[in-house]
Amino acid sequence: MECVVCHTSRYKISEDDSDDEDNLTANDHNKVPAKVLHYFPLVPRLQRLYMSSEATASMRWHEEGRTKDGLLRHLADSPAWQTFDHKYPEFAKGIPTPPRNNIDVYLAPVVDELKLLWDHGVETCDSSTNSNFQMRAGMRYAYRKDKNSFDDTEELETKPTCLTGSDVLNELNGIDLLPICIRNSLPKHVRSVVIKLCRYYRRLCCKVLDPTKLVQMENDIGKILCDMERIFPPSFFDVMVHISVHLAYEARIEYLATLKYYVRNRSKPEGSISEGYLADECLAFCSLYFADNVETIHNKKSRNYEDGGKEDGLPIFSMPGRPIGARKMSLLSLDLLTRAHSYVLFNCSELESFRIEHLSILHRENKKECQHLIQRMHYNKFEKWFGKHVRKLHKQGVDRISEDLRHLENGPSENVTTYKGYIVNGYRFQIKQTEKKRKMQNSGVMLEARTNSFSSVRDKNPIVGAVTYYGVLKEIIELQYGTDKKVVLFRCDWISNVQVKRKMKTGLQCSIFID
Question: Does the reported pTM lie above 0.90?
């Protein structure tokens, strides 16, 4: 059997085969095809996009929902797109002729469908408007002097204007300039390694990756880390540094691993991949018609999903997040319970007016005391003052005393619930105790706290600034206020970056709560 176009055999001829090509029939399963094309038709896939009302809205967004103020936010804002829309309002012109080479055998079905979509279009149903329209499509392409392959014209525009030093500085505004800044501040052998590492991550974070360069990057990162080990101490090389070795490889095989998963028949990998891709495509399309409460690929929750929290009451009782693992009931000591409750009171934004009022009272009653001592008195005495003040206002019938404020005034129960893990803001946290036999560490935390900094006890003008703390998650505690009001706190062992040396010498640890 021969091809109707090139008149060559459709099957590979081995030494055992007869020279008579007429004996080679399609029914002979022992014959190996000369070329195999697994083609996924374009037209039905484009039509399928308009069968879902949600997908249809996205398909028409560039025309109906896009902000049209002349600024560049989307490809549809570009001059090329707008010129194309103006020049071919109905896509009535012919499609460019593809290059005449062996690839034509594989591109022929695509060219036929593109010609159909360009010349005539295909009637398609728009599910969002419940109406039919003539769907058309075109292919964007770039060229310069290859006029024979396109519309017989050359690209004659001049090259872009070279940028001046000021232009480059403006372009780099807001970009990490670490490689530039360290050139004159570090020794040559140190800055060269750091610059190489920065270059590695810059290439890895590009929107377009070249697979051939990724192979070279795999070799480079090993040499870079070896050079770093000659400069930096062993404590610098934690798991996050060594993971750099795998990033280029993972980027290169990410989709390849998906295709490899499709292979069931190793003697026919292309056919297996085609069937697997079609199966996933069919399942994804059918899932669009399931009810919203059915979990599918389109609405599947992420691994670190969290609930949205409650919308009623004080925000501190409505924080998002969800616990991981089994819960355990325990009795909290009075000292720890008092500190936890004070943290809640000082981090509830709705109590700002109460805190200001209490602080002003302390200033009036202690005019001779320094600011540092007044702040300490404010922290130690606010809890009791707040309870008495809220009860007093409640008896007077003041409207701003809500049920949630009464719960805060009564304080939490000494019976608390503890967890080993918690997911919040898309991150998974686990206490240090659970990581003894695990490779992954999720107990590290960082907190930037705004605090009053005093130069001495006599300092009357403290400076409010941000202090960064690094620590380890020790315990996850859920406080119970009333019957259904809860606040989750992280109990951590902290060390601040401004007191590293003193903390390292004394070995002191402190417990600070974060919600």
Answer: no
